[in-house]
Design goal:
Largest interface: A-B, 18 and 26 residues
Helix content of chain B: 10-25%
Order of helices and strands of chain A: HHHHHHHHHHHH
Order of helices and strands of chain B: EEEHEEEHHHEHEHEEHHEEEEEEEEEEE
Distance between the termini of chain A: 43 Å
Number of strands of chain A: 0
Structural class of chain B: alpha+beta
Largest sheet of chain A: none
Number of helices of chain A: 12
Oligomer: heterodimer
């Protein structure tokens, strides 16, 4: 066996290990959502009982709808505001622009626990209080930098002559934006929107701080349920979410090539 | 009235003066080359005319109207960029239609106009292609079609041929002039390629350090450069310096060179220029056929063969002179050969520093 073949074999083993590390827990969780035993006991006996039970679990379902609605609205708001901000930063020079661009990044790095505490104190102080509206507001603020970064990255790849050519042909600002700029940055906007959705849908810490009893998002509700006693219903709802989000990702990847040439 | 008038235009970027009181008229239907080294201000001038930037001083008129505070989209210009800047998300036909579509022209009219202009640039069959499916020369034609379909008052070209390989570039030079003549559109062409400027332009403006150094027809500028910069930037020149003497210029070794008579002020007569192709090279021992010529003697330092011509570097009394001889089967001179160079008084031009 030559060294090259040995290296190739090692490479394959390495990739297999990485994939196993990433996906094995998820596969086991999905499998257990179809297992009769609530304590992960083998042998595996298939059942859909946990999915049936889930259909009757009102708090979890209500929380799931809350999460979905908040994630969608937060995605929409963050994408519109973030894209507009990225375009503004791209087009105009103004005092403090560099500072503003720099200030967009730290929120990504600040621990959510701290952001959550700060938001709770601030929202309480200015009278916004807690509840789903506060969660939505918090999620939009959290997701905004991701959208700005994704769209700005795409804008940076656009030759300035493209917009100049459009203007020289008589297009006004709105026409330049809708007919030339937006098509160019579309993949960045979609990527930013997906990030925004994911940031909101996954969010636990900030939602936990801003939620009121009886009105929670899915991660908060799952956490509460686990504290009361784990049931494979959690596996069931998690499996549904994983399949849905993976499907969404694959669909998007099918239509957009992120970062690449258009 | 000139199609485009630039009147005393200056533009500064911080401490750098990109343009310094430039005035130039572009006549209706003419093809103008703006030529200069990089950093000379030629692209700045083009962008000021286009309206991507505004002058700090002076005025720009297009079709007699002041362009002060008129944004790009209302100037009725057409522009071609170095990288073509075709819209990647649109077909060729949609790219060309863009300028008409944003003006809200009826669909049928757009289709007709686009069809006509694609015929003109010989791309009728490629209307449904995307830009990335085209060759460099085809993209070039699409960019041109897109720029002229709106019937702009002036066509601005920013080094549009520099991305093409040489053979294609020569084709496109001819093609571009054919289409420009057919449409009759005033065209301003920025280039750093002096040969391109010479072969294509009706008139050339030479810029250096933000100033318009000389403006005129290609022949005029080539034959009568006003300065050492122009004489050496546009083509090659041998420059002689010496003392002003009775009837000419006295070189260090006592040779007297006479220049053509023209209205040059006395102070510029201490610098003469002669083009390498105007010099005849012959053996120093040969009989002198034209005693009224300017004559110097020297030794061949090196020679370079270029197919249809051969160039010699000749060392003569402190000047290294370049001579270009057509490859007409005449005598060849080895390195070190003693030679005599002669050229007519008419070929000798007084230039400034």
């Amino acid at each position: 066996m030559t060294i090259a073949r040995l290296l190739r074999l090692l490479g394959r083993v390495y990739i297999a290990l990485v994939l196993a590390f990433l996906y094995l827990p998820i596969v086991i969780m999905i499998a257990m959502s179809f297992n009769v035993s609530p304590f992960y006991q083998l042998p595996f006996e298939p059942t859909t009982a946990w999915y049936a039970a889930l259909a009757d679990n009102r708090p979890i379902l209500a929380a799931a709808w809350n999460s979905l609605a908040i994630a969608l609205v937060a995605m929409l708001l963050a994408t519109v505001i973030g894209t507009a901000a990225a375009l503004g930063l791209h087009r105009f020079d103004f005092a403090g622009k560099r500072l503003l661009q720099l200030l967009l990044l730290p929120p990504i790095a600040i621990p959510w626990l701290i952001t959550g505490t700060a938001m709770l104190v601030f929202f309480y102080g200015v009278g916004i209080g807690r509840g789903l509206h506060a969660i939505l507001l918090g999620h939009v603020a959290l997701a905004l930098p991701y959208v700005v970064v994704a769209v700005s990255a795409r804008l940076a790849t656009m030759a300035p002559e493209l917009e100049e050519a459009a203007r020289s042909l008589g297009a006004n600002g709105w026409q330049v934006t809708t007919r030339v700029t937006l098509p160019w940055i579309a993949s960045g906007v979609v990527a930013g929107a997906l990030f925004a959705f994911a940031v909101s849908f996954d969010q636990f810490v900030i939602s936990y701080f801003l939620a009121t009893p009886g009105e929670a998002t899915l991660p908060v509700e799952i956490y509460a349920a686990i504290r009361k006693g784990f049931t494979p219903e959690i596996n069931a709802i998690s499996s549904i979410i994983i399949l849905a989000s993976m499907g969404l990702m694959l669909l998007t990847a099918r239509f957009f090539r992120f970062g690449g040439e258009t | 009235m000139a199609a485009v008038q630039v009147i005393g235009v200056s533009r500064r970027f911080g401490a750098l003066t990109a343009l310094d009181q430039v005035s130039i008229d572009f006549e209706e239907g003419g093809f103008y080359g703006l030529l200069g080294p990089s950093g000379s201000g030629k692209t700045t001038l083009l962008r000021l005319i286009a309206g991507f930037d505004f002058p700090d001083a002076g005025r720009i008129l297009i079709g007699g109207e002041s362009m002060e505070r008129v944004p790009v989209e209302r100037r009725r210009i057409g522009m071609m960029f170095q990288n073509y800047a075709l819209f990647p998300n649109m077909s060729v036909a949609d790219n060309v239609a863009f300028g008409l579509a944003v003006r809200g022209r009826p669909k049928a009219e757009i289709r007709r106009e686009v069809g006509q202009v694609l015929d003109l640039v010989q791309l009728s069959d490629l209307g449904s292609r995307r830009p990335h499916q085209l060759s460099g020369g085809q993209r070039q034609r699409v960019a041109l079609a897109r720029a002229i379909v709106t019937r702009p008052k002036v066509l601005l070209l920013d080094e549009p041929l520099s991305a093409l390989d040489k053979a294609l570039r020569l084709d496109m030079q001819v093609e571009l002039r054919r289409i420009q003549r057919e449409v009759g559109i005033t065209t301003i062409f920025v280039t750093h390629d002096q040969e391109e400027a010479l072969t294509m332009s009706d008139r050339i403006g030479i810029l250096s350090d933000g100033r318009l150094i000389q403006e005129g027809t290609p022949e005029d500028i080539y034959e009568f450069p006003k300065s050492t910069f122009v004489a050496t930037f546009l083509g090659e020149s041998n420059i002689f310096t010496g003392e002003i003497a009775d009837g000419g210029l006295m070189l260090k070794d006592g040779t007297l060179l006479r220049a053509r008579e023209d209205a040059r002020p006395e102070r510029t007569r201490d610098r003469l220029a002669v083009r390498p192709e105007r010099i005849t090279i012959e053996a120093a021992s040969a009989p002198l056929a034209f005693p009224e010529s300017n004559v110097v003697t020297g030794r061949v330092v090196s020679s370079t063969f270029a197919g249809n011509s051969r160039s010699y570097l000749v060392d003569s009394a402190g000047h290294t002179l370049k001579v270009i001889v057509p490859n007409d089967g005449g005598e060849r001179f080895e390195d070190g050969a003693a030679v005599r160079l002669r050229w007519s008084r008419e070929s000798t031009i007084c230039i400034g520093a």
